[in-house]
Design brief:
The chain is an alpha+beta fold and about 90 residues long. Helices cover about 35% and strands about 30% of the residues. The protein has one domain.
Length: about 90
């Protein structure tokens, strides 16, 4: 499990197998998704007041805001897959 945690900035981590998508925050559909998550109490702001650079969507319908670029988080997830840490979680 330890290897399945992804650092998303400012000491915050998420459990990688729960991540469904990592997207840029700029489009209208994503802004609507963020607003709906806020209304439903499922928005988590992990930016520490910084600019939102990525939005992480989980399988529990939580929407997590991060100040780290989409590409950086995606590379961290890919690194877990390459090391085999995520493969063991699915078993």
């Amino acid at each position: 499990m330890k290897g399945s945690l992804i650092h998303i900035g400012f000491g915050n981590v998420i459990y990688a197998p729960r991540v469904v998508a990592i997207v840029n925050p700029g489009s209208s559909p994503i802004k609507k998704l963020k607003d709906e998550a806020k209304e439903n109490g499922k928005l988590i702001d992990a930016t520490e007041g910084r600019k939102t650079r990525s939005i992480i969507i989980t399988d529990s319908d939580h929407v997590i805001l991060s100040a780290i670029q989409v590409e950086t988080i995606a590379q961290r997830v890919a690194g877990l897959k390459e090391s085999g840490d995520l493969a063991h979680e699915a078993e």
